[in-house]
Amino acid sequence: MSDLIAVGPPARRQTRQAARLALGTASALGLARFAYGLLLPAMRDELHWSLAQAGAVSTANGLGYLLGALVTAAAVRRLGTAATFRWGMVLTALALAVTAASDAYPVLLAARAAAGAAGAAVFVTGGVIASRLAARAASGAPITVYFAGTGLGIVAGGVGIPPLGGHLHLAWAGLGVAAGLAALLSWTSAQAGEEPQADQKAQAGKGPRSGEEVQTGEDARFREARAATAGRVHVRPLWGIALAYLLFAAGYITYITFLSAYLADRHAPLGQVMLTWTALGLAVVAAPALWSRPTAAWPGTRALAVLLGLLSGGAALAMAAPAPPVVLASAIVYGATFMGVPAAVTALIKAYTPPADWTATLAVFTTIFAAGQTAGPWLAGLVADHTSTAAALAWTAILCAAAALIAACATPSRRAGAGPAEKTPDAEASTRQ
Fold first, then answer.
1. How far apart are the first and last CA of the chain?
2. Residue 70 CA: distances (Å) to CA of 73, 121, 140, 361, 365
3. Which of 47, 198, 238, 396 could form a disulfide with 315 if both were Cys (CB 3.0 to 4.6 A apart)?
């Protein structure tokens, strides 16, 4: 793999590929998950939901995400990483289209669950491909760019959904069309992380001739399936990170789910809602410039703890004063930090586990994450029904503060992977900035 790093394409080429791959997080997260927060106030009013019911719809998405995370490894063994990513993108778009077709609560729950399941496949496989790109580029930039794609989806929702007002079906249909375009544009980017050995041969001028291409593809899929099957899961040596990730997942999702409802309860004008969401999304896009180097260079869990602490403070800021500038600042802090947490966790997994075990360990951490975000919205909605929508923001602040403390005290065990002197070349390269 060190040879591949030496002769591979420049880091900026890998980063460009990651930018197209980032349409995966834009669709699976920005459109299929977070845009629901923009539609929640209108759906609550038009469909006469309680906040617990509205939170349960988000919980259905989280449950689907959990189920998707559980089956992603099997899908990768059967289809390969690239194909799983691509078809996950297609199914995400179809699930959004189904959401536009009915107001029936069971149909909406099922559609949101399907979007979550497809999104999990996209998130896990896209993260694996981005990790491969990072290793080949000897830079952490492809990973942070991949996660920053979420901001593109949030910006698209912030600009496009509020002007539609109560036209729920049109808004959901528009999200489905946008997700379909994302699937089309990202289709070839998934191949960027595949068949590294074939890429190495091609770089050295020994690429397969036409008569060998089919066999090379089959061999690559076999190697990938064997790696997915043989990969070991490393959670116990990373238990502190796993617990912090669980609390983060249960906390972060409530802020963005109920933010628009919080603004609606305070009669925020259309312009404020659009500005708040657009600024939040742009902050997500800008986050790699802020966190790429700290995530790669800071020792241990320091970056993760700082991210979680800032996230908690950002959520608390909106409660301190509901004035538009304060809420805007809260959204910017939230956007600049929340997607940095999965990136930091992914970097820690890569630093403390062997490359052969990345897929299996990422899948389990995604399952832990999904479990947290499944419970969070419904529980926060129950609390908010008996208090106010501000309770959802308090929920985020409290849980993320607890996660920050746990992360600060966590000490990952080197038993999970090679020590500093034994770290494999591709793992070391992928964590350098």
1. 17
2. 7, 9, 27, 12, 10
3. 396
Contact 192, 17 (CB under 8 A): yes
d(CA 305, CA 301): 6
Q: Do 354 and 320 meet the contact criterion of CB atoms below 8 Å apart? A: no
Placement of tokens 């949030």 in the chain: 154
Question: pLDDT of 8-53, one tens digit each?
Answer: 445 677 778 888 999 999 999 999 999 999 998 888 888 888 888 9
Rounded CA gap, 98 and 112, in Å? 9
- Decide: 134 and 21 in contact? Cβ < 8 Å: no
The whole-angstrom separation of Cα 112 and Cα 65 is 9
Q: What is the biggest distance separating any 2 CA atoms in the chain, rounded to whole angstroms? A: 68
Q: Which residues contact 127 (CB under 8 A, 6 or more apart)?
A: 143, 146, 342, 346, 362
User: 336 with 279: CB under 8 angstroms?
Assistant: no
Tokens (6 digits) for 37: 């927060």
- Give the span between the Cα atoms of 336 and 106, in whole angstroms: 35
Residues 331, 149, 307, 420: what is their CA dihedral angle, to the nearest 10 degrees?
-170
Q: How far is CA 148 from CA 341, 346, 408, in A?
A: 11, 14, 24
Tokens encoding 72: 């992603």
pLDDT tens by residue, 196-214:
444 444 344 444 443 443 3
The token pair at 295 is 């995530």
Sequence-ordered list of residues with C-beta below 8 angstroms from that of 74, at least 6 positions apart, any chain: none
pLDDT digit string, tens, across residues 86-138: 999 999 999 999 998 888 999 999 999 999 999 989 988 998 898 888 888 77
Question: By the 8 A CB rule, do 182 and 23 touch?
Answer: yes
Dihedral in degrees, nearest 10, Cα atoms 105, 106, 107, 111:
100
Looking up tokens 């657009």 gives 278
What does the alpha-carbon distance between residue 365 and residue 353 come to, in Å, rounded to a whole number? 13
Q: What is the model's pTM?
A: 0.78
- pLDDT category, 365, cuts 50, 70, 90? confident
Secondary structure of residue 266 in the 3-state scheme = coil
Cα–Cα dist 294/288, whole Å: 10
Rounded to whole angstroms, the Cα distance separating 407 from 283 reads: 23
Q: Which spans in 48-167 are helix H?
A: 51-79, 81-99, 105-137, 141-160
